[in-house]
């Protein structure tokens, strides 16, 4: 499996990590010619007329179910009402106060199973309000006109280190910066954003949109982004920083580590060109102009989760003949039904109850994958068949970033490698270390990571304020 | 099939649907196209000495995504030469002899009235509508609503017309008066043959907040205009009712105008005493074609009611337009929410909490939670939340009504987005019918908790 970070290093070389003058320093770091540029936006930003018409459909429910369905509890009826009156700036304020990554969430949230899925119109057999599209309209339109939506508080002198630049860390850094704290984000990859930048299906959101949002977020207050820096138990060079020194230099640490590398199938023929990890492949598709998919005519995607569905859908949209191989039946898939449906509409084929047992190669080149029939998710003898393919994308999960977490004293993991945190605060076993996002929940939504970040930011702020208030006060 | 033809002050019309004097009845070509698709008559755009109109003439009031709930215009009477209009009117009447053609007129002096009436009658119009209603532009010149708002002037000018007219004289009234009965009575005294109402309501539609100019904007300024469209229908119905329940004025046929957009609107005007109806805004919005539904809908409605003609419907609701003091204080309705139709938006709840009497409750709350939310009365019977949600698509989001506290205001039923979900059911109050006027007559029109001065004055009167 190829390492995308190497391919991207050239792309961002020479760019400053900070760009307070408002120039698009992160977006400018992207190279043109990326495969993701070939995708059309499935849900482009509404025009004003579209947004107002849709907003006017909203009933403005009381104690609305859509709010409860949102992990960040955005006051959806209120922001939609504001759109309907032309108060777009107010709408953006309502959204971003509850969710600092409201723009990307509007694009990438599976609203079908969240806010829109709980819209009362569903009860009435009517189309639910297009909440995601309205949210995107409000935030993009308002920030485009005037990005200065919030006023940061006076500096407190407190410093927070955020490890990883994914949605959880970004949310923590943003909220704490607004409270007047200084936040430093450490990211081992050349580009920030985590899966928001590197993993979201490009027909939902492209890397430049994610980076644009991050540029805005970094402008909220005293936030520094240090990329190309890894955290380890001991620093072995200029690109590493020791966990211990972070605890010494910062008042609080947030671990937004995300997940590790793609898991492997461990079958014959897997090693070598033509077999890719799904997450790594999508990362290249999004930001690596060197990725060539022209030679790929037929592909097998292995897995049944949302990443597998995304990869299958993305390949299908590029004109590749895609088979999605899942070891159980459709009902057992963890990927969303609406995502499977739209992937199939765009040409992906679902093969149920089959598992790959060997990748077939000729002169090193992948020519097919041997599939076994499965029962209860496990291969059984008899009825093997060969599916001719040029590419195998493996999407059966990701490893955990356990090493970084364990470098912090007091931080503990559960049996599945997930960080253990306090449910109410996101605090780990180390009272100065908090965590949230995929490394805690094992892999979930962007909006869940933002909600985790919000929870941690509240707790960190409370802890820092407590520490500054005079004893006995 | 019911007979839709009418006799309006002697004018026979194939149906009660007439185009009002406005842009849809501006030219002969327009009127003939309207007649072709079913309109029974047209009141031609007001004739007089031609004027000059401004560019940028209309503005509308939207509600949510509904466009043109109300429309306003600052257009004046016809800006076309009189002889062009007359030639076209003659042509229309020649080609459509059975359709109703009314000339709307607005001039100043007695001589002018005499001249213009002769000219339009010579081309064969079926009647005259004196425009005493236009509330902008013309009234400043002493015409239009300046006449309609002054009963004496109205009576005098109407008298001039009656004296020289050979066809029925209809007086078009302005709603921009304190009491519509006064101009109504003046029409009756003048000897005119009929009334049409309402003309437009004086209005400023909106303000352009960037330029600080009212709308519609004409360069750097605007002016007040005349408001019409669906939003004014209730105002028109009230004024119609005031005249059709008047013992004398009600003898005159009335052509109802004001926001009529559908057959149902038309039926309501006729039920409240109108003989014909005039339509403008709905045509400006959707075109002449809407008359197909109007004709069909009204005809089917009459059939469904077992009525054979417009005349059988006309005025049926007038006797039930009562004074407040004659309403039955013992009558009682309460809200009834159908859990099967409820979608759980809870708009009824918030409307009742903040805008009414706090008698709609959310299920699953403890008494303490209910009191904290603002309820002052806790119903004796709180329905079980599970039982309430059973069979209800919205499940536990279905609110319930505290019938004991419900005063039957209708607000919840009005805000509910699902037609038929909240109905107002009649409850026997157990009391005999009684009106406020009954109480006044008996002398017990006192509600405890009033002013000391009032109580003292009553006591004084009692001693006297």
Automatic annotation (TrEMBL), chain A:
InterPro entries: 4Fe4S_Fe-S-bd (IPR017896), DPD_II (IPR028261), FAD/NAD-bd_sf (IPR036188), FAD/NAD-binding_dom (IPR023753), Helical_ferredxn (IPR009051)
SUPFAM superfamilies assigned: alpha-helical ferredoxin, Nucleotide-binding domain
Molecular function via GO: iron-sulfur cluster binding; oxidoreductase activity
Domain 4Fe-4S ferredoxin-type per the UniProt entry, residue ranges: 49-82
Name of protein: Pyridine nucleotide-disulfide oxidoreductase associated with reductive pyrimidine catabolism
Lineage of the organism: Bacteria, Pseudomonadati, Myxococcota, Polyangia, Polyangiales
From TrEMBL, chain B:
Gene3D superfamilies: 3.30.70.20, Aldolase class I
Transmembrane parts of this sequence: none
A Pfam family that the UniProt record links to this protein: Fer4_7
Entries under InterPro entries matching the protein: 4Fe4S_Fe-S-bd (IPR017896), 4Fe4S_Fe_S_CS (IPR017900), Aldolase_TIM (IPR013785), Dihydroorotate_DH_cat (IPR005720)
Species name: Chondromyces apiculatus DSM 436
Biased composition (Basic and acidic residues): 436-445
Catalytic activity: 5,6-dihydrouracil + NAD(+) = uracil + NADH + H(+); 5,6-dihydrothymine + NAD(+) = thymine + NADH + H(+)
Matches recorded under PANTHER family: DIHYDROPYRIMIDINE DEHYDROGENASE [NADP(+)]
Documented EC number(s): 1.3.1.1
Subunit structure: Heterotetramer of 2 PreA and 2 PreT subunits.
Region span, Disordered: 428-451
Protein name (Swiss-Prot/TrEMBL): dihydrouracil dehydrogenase (NAD(+))
Keyword match Iron: yes
UniProt record similarity statement: Belongs to the dihydropyrimidine dehydrogenase family.
KW Flavoprotein (keyword) present: no
SUPFAM superfamilies reported in the protein's UniProt record: 4Fe-4S ferredoxins (SSF54862), FMN-linked oxidoreductases (SSF51395)
Domain 4Fe-4S ferredoxin-type: residue ranges: 333-362, 397-427
GO molecular function: dihydropyrimidine dehydrogenase (NAD+) activity; iron-sulfur cluster binding; metal ion binding
CDD domains per record: DHPD_FMN (cd02940)
Function summary: Involved in pyrimidine base degradation. Catalyzes physiologically the reduction of uracil to 5,6-dihydrouracil (DHU) by using NADH as a specific cosubstrate. It also catalyzes the reverse reaction and the reduction of thymine to 5,6-dihydrothymine (DHT).
